[in-house]
Amino acid sequence: MPVFPLFRKVALAAASLILATSPSALAAPPPKAAEPCYVEHFCLWGRGQFEGPMASYTKGSRNVAGQGLTRGGWSAWNRTSEAWCLWYKPGYAGGGKSVVKPGEKVSVTFHPFKSLLPRSAWRC
């Protein structure tokens, strides 16, 4: 048997073994750092417990799906100095609204928030 093909097979096997057992190949990627919720912003998260995709607002939104929260907002943190109104349907509609006071954090389990406005807005 020629030496070159045998050497090539051994080198490929060794490289595969090294890659398969290296710590970087076995370790899970580090978790992505959570985006901060800045002061004077109203923040919504796509999952409960302030996890998942996050959108930040200063003026509100008719439909939060446009900001990447396709299933709505399940957690909210009001870091502004005024109360905010949140609705369960897009377009400031739904079977009711919730009011989140300044500094308050809320998490819902039944209906996600789909639209929101600061209290000073005419529709709130």
Structure characterization notes:
Keywords: Signal. It comes from Streptomyces angustmyceticus. With about 120 residues, this protein is an alpha+beta fold. It has a domain at about 40-120: Gamma-B Crystallin, domain 1, CATH 2.60.20. The protein contains two helices and seven strands. A hairpin with a 3-residue loop joins strand 1 (about 40-45) and strand 2 (about 50-55). The radius of gyration is 25 Å and the shape is globular.
Short description, anyone?
The protein is of the alpha+beta class.
Report how far apart the termini are.
83 Å
Using the 3D structure, state the CATH architecture of the domain at 42-118.
Sandwich
Q: Tell me the strand percentage band.
A: 25-35%
Question: Quick one: biggest sheet?
Answer: 4 strands, antiparallel
Top-tier CATH class of the domain at 42-118 = Mainly Beta
- What is the spatial order of strands in the main beta sheet? 2-1-3-6
Shape: globular
Query: Could you give me the name of the CATH homologous superfamily of the domain at 42-118?
Result: Crystallins
Ordered list of secondary-structure elements with their pairings:
Elements lengths: L2 H19 L1 H4 L15 E6 L3 E7 L17 E4 L5 E6 L3 E8 L4 E3 L7 E4 L6
Antiparallel strand pairs: 1-2, 1-3, 3-6, 4-5, 4-7
